[in-house]
Amino acid sequence: MVTEQEVEAIGRSLVDPQQPLQARFRALFTLRGLGGPAAIAWISRAFNDDSALLKHELAYCLGQLQDPRAVPVLVDVLRDTRQEPMVRHEAGEALGAIGSPEVLEVLKEFEADPVVEVAETCQLAVRRLEWLQQRGGAPAPKGPYLSVDPAPPAEERNVGRLRAALLDEARPLFDRYRAMFALRDTGGEEAALALAEGLRCGSALFRHEVGYVLGQLQHEAAVPALAAALARRREPRWCGTSAPRRWGPSPGPACLAALRAHTAGDPERVVRESCAVALDLYAHESARPSSTRTAWSACARRPPTPTPASRPPAPGAVRWPRPGCFGLLSAQRSQAPGARLRSLQCSRGAGCRLGGHLGGGAGLRGGGSAAQSL
């Protein structure tokens, strides 16, 4: 078991603005993996930070926990017009991910928010909650990825028809999101290229989510379109930040070149920070023994169901993440010297062990992206 003192040390690393942003991200995703009221409290304390990127990920992690105890702080962030649009948007999306019926009226209140991205996010969250209610409160079917998505995937699996639905801007945004996540789950080059076309669609929120999904998919065919979107100066800069953090631990040369260029020279802080976090993950994973890197694929996609011929290893032998873990990785360094977490027990399921140092367990956003979402 993780002690209160250990959780406090991780939390203090998260809220300490003197810590490098990369270390704070690792602390955040360690808390996300642990879950529970103490983790929620520490994550909630960091919303007064000046990094919009960090606050965006705070809201994301609270949503992925699907713990109703996070609802009050997320409602406060959504209501706070001093917060950046990308932060308020993510708070609305997180409320939809938690799925508590009592937030429906709050979300409806913001369906006409003057910030278009916030309004569209809340419209999507309302549709998701209504969709869940139509199913009698039953959870969405589990797909191959571990993330809790803002819309369930469409049942259609024909890539051509899904592409047409994705790019049809006359369709309801919820239906286009369903096509988006169905394309992601289908996978392959044709699906990746269809998704990449969505980076030219009109809605900034839609483009932001397409970048996230392409980061989860991690297909090289989409890299040119992602790099081009990242480079577009007229693009709302937060739209291009979702994919870099989710390119995963083994990006190709083109990805690395784009990440390094924007880390060094992009005029927008949110883009520089996003690319720096992605490079930090790459550097960390490159230093790990090759035998341990396969855990990343489990972060991106749900592990296959064991068969009699493929018996699961002993607990702790392989770091398969449970929902809520998303591949928290070993720390690069300890933020509290001498206080090492040799075995963090994941709150989402027995047998899921997270190795790491206090304040340093790295992880990315659900599914190759948070490893997700980073």
UniProtKB/TrEMBL annotation:
Pathway this chain belongs to: Protein modification; eIF5A hypusination
Cited HAMAP family: Deoxyhypusine_hydroxylase
Family (UniProt): Belongs to the deoxyhypusine hydroxylase family.
Positions of Fe cation 2 binding: H208, E209
Lineage: Eukaryota, Metazoa, Chordata, Craniata, Vertebrata
E.C. code: 1.14.99.29
Region: Disordered, residue numbers: 293-317
A Pfam cross-reference name: HEAT_PBS
Name of the protein described by the UniProt record: Deoxyhypusine hydroxylase
Cofactor, how bound (note): Binds 2 Fe(2+) ions per subunit.
Function as written in the Swiss-Prot or TrEMBL entry: Catalyzes the hydroxylation of the N(6)-(4-aminobutyl)-L-lysine intermediate produced by deoxyhypusine synthase/DHPS on a critical lysine of the eukaryotic translation initiation factor 5A/eIF-5A. This is the second step of the post-translational modification of that lysine into an unusual amino acid residue named hypusine. Hypusination is unique to mature eIF-5A factor and is essential for its function.
Biased composition (Pro residues): 303-315
Key words, A-Z: Hypusine biosynthesis, Iron, Metal-binding, Monooxygenase, Oxidoreductase, Repeat
InterPro entries found in the cross-reference section: ARM-like (IPR011989), ARM-type_fold (IPR016024), Deoxyhypusine_hydroxylase (IPR027517), PBS_lyase_HEAT (IPR004155)
Catalytic activity: [eIF5A protein]-deoxyhypusine + AH2 + O2 = [eIF5A protein]-hypusine + A + H2O
Positions with a binding annotation for Fe cation 1: H56, E57, H89, E90
Cofactor(s) listed in the protein's UniProt record: Fe(2+)
GO molecular function: deoxyhypusine monooxygenase activity; metal ion binding
SUPFAM superfamilies: ARM repeat (SSF48371)
